[in-house]
# Entry
Amino acid sequence: MSKNESRQRRARQTRIKIAELNANRLTVVRSNMHISAQVYSPCGTQVLAAASTMEKELRAAVKNGGNSAAAQEIGKLIAERAKKVGVETVAFDRGGHRYHGRIKALADAAREAGLKF
# Structure
């Protein structure tokens, strides 16, 4: 099994568990150059809030979209947008990635901004 297949298997198991909980899901998509986050409804068909370093306003504010500082900005922004829609509690889906670096920075910033998970 390759490294990417292992990550996808871990992500699939996490999503199955979150579906059983019937909770809003905060997902993180990470690439070398950017990071993005989305909050999905419990059924998984509707995006309630989204934030990404590819947005025009954030590209001007954040010089490099692939570092921890950019992840912190995305964490704050996704928490603000989720709270504006009325979402207070989410389940964190890290996409099979390890909980460190940019993933951890985004999660900590979202918690500080008021999301509970």
The chain has one domain: 3-112.
